[in-house]
Amino acid sequence: MRPPPAKDPAAQTLVPHWLDPDARRVLADAVQAALADPQVHPVSAIHLQDVLTELHVAAAREAVWPSSAARVRLATGWDADVLPVRLSRAELASVLELEELPDAVREVLRTRVGRP
Question: Which of 16, 33, 36, 91 sits at a 20 to 30 Å CA gap from 67?
Fold first, then answer.
């Protein structure tokens, strides 16, 4: 059984955002704080829960398949602890709306220029 097709195919595309451990921790903290707020919109809560899941999946992906990310880190000169966190457009929009998100991490996610 497959999910119904999305109206916008790009909406389902996961884009990697290369984050160091500090940025991943700050992102997780901001998302968890938002999820603890009873005022969070239910749809945003779903996207934010998906972001938390992806943060865990990114670490697991690195443990199981380290070579693909290692090639990118080697080419860019990034440290070995920089990981791709793959976010959909909806997940990214929900994260960028968080007031708790520090500007440095927000800028990295918004511009995709690399790690903070």
Answer: 91
9 part of a folded domain: no
Which amino acid does the sequence have at 116? P
Residue 96 lies in a domain: yes
Copy the structure tokens of residue 16.
């990697």
Q: What is the pTM of this model?
A: 0.84
Stated as kind and residue range, the H or E segment containing 16 is strand 15-19
Residue 40 has pLDDT above 80, yes or no: yes
- Which two tokens mark 56? 């865990």
Position of tokens 């919109």?
Answer: 41
Contact yes or no for 79/116 (Cβ under 8 A)? no
Q: What is the CA radius of gyration of the chain?
A: 15
Is residue 6 a part of any domain in this protein? no
Specify burial of residue 67 (Cβ count, 10 A radius: 0-12, 13-18, 19+).
exposed
For position 116, what pLDDT does the model report?
Answer: 43
